[in-house]
Amino acid sequence: MSFVTESSINEDFVFLDKMSEHEQVVFCNDKATGLRAIIAIHNTTLGPALGGCRMQPYRSLDAALNDVLRLSKGMSYKCAAADVDFGGGKAVIIGDPLTDKSPELFRAFGQFVESLGGRFYTGTDMGTTMDDFVYAKKETNNIVGVPEAYGGSGDSSIPTATGVLGGIKATNQILFGKDNLQGVTYAIQGLGKVGFKVAEGLLDEGADLYVTDINEKSIQAIQERAKTMSGSVKVVSNNDIYSQEADVFVPCAFGGIVNDDTISQFKVKAIAGSANNQLATEEHGIQLAEKGILYAPDYIINSGGLIQVADELYGANKERVLMKTREIYNVILKVYQEAELNQITTMEAANQICEKLMEGRGKRNSFYTPSIKPKWDIRK
Ligand code: NAD
């Protein structure tokens, strides 16, 4: 028998308080496969929730819950900014991606997704791969971003890089009054799936780059590529990338790179890159503005991949994805203009634009329920 104590009641309230902004939080447990997961649906005003599924060996249930609540809220804003008809959601699987994966585990996860009846769509994120979701897709159609051979739309880093290049053009428009990529210098951190394509796009226009990566093969590859293009590449060390005398810093490796250590090192006029959660805290966004560094909000400039996976649900179409991804240029311009007009940070301006979109639509429908009822609907 367990006793309810005053302290356990308080803990319960803290727990509920954390979820108060969310529409629905589902704890998934399947003994047979060892699946332990949480699905969080933050807001479906704009449509069914969409967001990737992470797999990590979280230290505690609380750590997993915090992560999924924070990430699913971020997806509501990202979907609103990208103008896709989806709301914000996210899932986390508690487990080690190196040792705890099995086809059965992802099929069980797919069944939980299916049980939400179309209120949640998901796909890969940190620790999960497209192949994992091929198994989940055997149990539910509400999966995006699988390989093209399984009906997906393929490599999402292509539209992500296109969107980043558009965001950089908008940034140059504000900084220099013209949106050419040429004649501006860039410091690129990370030459992976997105960073390499961004570097190629810039070199193609004749831009001069400082680059860094921990992977020597990526460095060699971009040096080779530069030989056939009009721009130039200078390799710098991982630590020196923050202090380069470039115009724009382009973070394409990991989050939290605008922090107490780096902020005093930046000599750039702007930061515009693909990495998620670039600001270590909101306060760092204010510090960037005080230093006169223009910041392209990460969840807008890197939304090309999201646009692609959201588009799959209309039947994958690369032309339509490109057309929508090009809009990122205009959204970033609007964010800069609103921030200037209202004397707020660009992150605050981005959040306000997204909140207005959700409020406006909320007057017609405050949350999403699938219009097609399951065949076994007992209410009939
Ligand atoms: P990736 O893993 O392919 O590339 C990351 C690159 O950064 C790698 O080449 C890696 O070697 C390098 N790197 C890691 N640590 C480094 C360090 N200390 N210094 C320099 N380089 C380092 O990842 P990606 O898909 O290209 O994504 C890059 C970033 O963009 C991530 O933050 C990701 O979350 C974000 N993002 C990606 C997409 C997408 O479509 N792939 C969409 C939205 C956001």
Spans where pLDDT lies below 50 across 5 or more residues: 372-380
Q: Strand share of the residues?
A: 5-15%
Assign the structural class, choosing from mainly alpha, mainly beta, alpha/beta, alpha+beta, or little secondary structure: alpha/beta
Name the overall outline: globular
Q: How many β-strand stretches?
A: 12
On the 0 to 100 scale, the average pLDDT is 91
- Specify the number of helices: 13
Q: Radius of gyration in whole Å, from Cα?
A: 22 Å
Small molecules in complex: nicotinamide-adenine-dinucleotide
Question: What does this protein structure show overall?
Answer:
- This protein is of the alpha/beta class and about 375 residues long.
- The longest helix has 22 residues, at about 60-80.
- It has helices at about 5-20, 60-80, 105-115, 130-135, 155-175, 195-205, 215-225, 280-290, 300, 305-310, 320-325, 330-340, 345-360, and strands spanning about 25-30, 35-45, 50, 55, 85-95, 120, 185-190, 210, 230-235, 250, 270, 295.
- Helix 6 runs parallel beside helix 7 (about 215-225).
- The model is unreliable at about 370-380 (pLDDT under 50).
- The strands form two sheets. Strands 1, 2, 3, 4, 5 and 6 form a six-stranded mixed beta sheet that branches. Strands 9-8-7-10-11-12 form a six-stranded parallel beta sheet, with helices on both faces.
- The structure holds nicotinamide-adenine-dinucleotide.
Helix/strand layout:
Blueprint: H1 6-18, E1 24-30, E2 35-43, E3 49-50, E4 53-56, H2 61-82, E5 87-94, H3 103-115, E6 120-121, H4 130-136, H5 157-176, E7 185-189, H6 193-204, E8 208-212, H7 216-227, E9 232-235, E10 248-251, E11 270-271, H8 282-290, E12 294-295, H9 298-301, H10 304-311, H11 318-326, H12 328-342, H13 346-362
Parallel strand pairs: 3-5, 3-6, 4-5, 7-8, 7-10, 8-9, 10-11, 11-12
Antiparallel strand pairs: 1-2, 2-5
Helix pairs in contact: 2-13, 3-4, 5-6, 5-10, 5-11, 5-12, 6-7, 10-11, 12-13
Bound molecules: nicotinamide-adenine-dinucleotide.
